[in-house]
Amino acid sequence: RMFFTEENAARIDAARELLEQWRRAGELSDRSYFVLLAAVIEATDRIANTAGIYASYMKGWQVNARRTFRVVVRQPAGGALPANAHLMDAAAAATNIGEAELIYIDPPYNARQYVAYYHIPEILARGWFDREPVVRGKVGLLAGPEGRSEWSHGRRVKRLFAGILSATGAQHALVSFGSEGHLSANALTEILLSHSADGKVSRFAQRYRRYRADGVRTGKTYHADAVTEQLFHIRLR
Predict the structure, then answer these.
(1) What pTM value is reported for the model?
(2) What is the pLDDT of residues 179-209, one digit of tens each?
(3) Closest CA relative to residue 94, chosen from 164, 173, 171
(4) Which of 102, 107, 173, 231 would bridge 204 by S-S if both were Cys, CB 3.0 to 4.6 A apart?
(5) C-alpha distances in angstroms, 58 versus 4, 49, 113, 196, 205?
């Protein structure tokens, strides 16, 4: 697999394994560990031999892939208020966080699973020290159900939206959803109206040129040249 040159692959492995050794030896705080882990993932992406996603690799070595893997550490910028990150089911997070001014919901809106398009950053984030990742296929996608989102299944989306809107203690909700999603704008508006405190739903739309990782191929048929990103707003209480 030509995701990385052999030299860079060895450097990535060494950096990730050393980082894990430091953490398990108690030489790093959680903050330092995650700052360094983010730097390793970013450095890896800069020299990946892909067209932007990891669903496949290029057949020849790109200029960036021939560069040497190099980690650049950037400290997070401090904000006026503290922030917490949660890794859990979205409806559970909405319940556990409690009252809030705003909830921003940006779920997957089609059948594409994150782990199929970014499996290498996912493996780097998880590590392979307690159990080796199980991969499949020509490009080594992650096998099994772990990391897959129910939001990518069209028949479940209405239930999931209703669940998170009912669970949240937020006053307002912003929902980001693409025009090619499992739900049409009208269907999503109906769901939002059923949870709107004042019976109103605001919709904002912006058209963008479709991103194509493989460029424009002669003779290849595309569904459309543009996609519309949509943002919905409702007041929940």
Answers:
(1) 0.78
(2) 878 888 898 999 999 999 999 999 998 888 7
(3) 164
(4) 231
(5) 10, 6, 21, 47, 34
